[in-house]
Amino acid sequence: MDGAGRLGYDEQLIDGYLPLTGDLPARLAEGIRVAGGTGHCVNLLAAAFPRSEVVGYDLAPDAIDAARREAADGGRCRA
Fold first, then answer.
1. Which of 21, 40, 43, 59 to pair with 2, CA 20 to 30 A apart?
2. Which domain holds residue 20?
3. φ, ψ for residue 49 (rounded to 5)?
4. Is 37 within the bounds of a domain?
5. pLDDT tens string 3-54
6. How many distinct helices (H) and strands (E) make up the chain?
């Protein structure tokens, strides 16, 4: 699923989908705590909104490991 959605999220998550949520982008910019699934979207949010704390979760150890690797590669993981 990650591979199928990655490009769309890269292109649309921050500038396409989030603006549809009302004041959420402004709140993220100010700094809030966000919980979401592991993976690419969590890392995109963390990179775009460094004042917010974005916490990922998943039941699958391999998905958690992959998300941590991606976050560490981007300098965003505090696992």
1. 21
2. 2-73
3. -130, 75
4. yes
5. 677 888 889 999 999 999 999 999 999 999 998 876 788 889 999 999 999 8
6. 4, 2
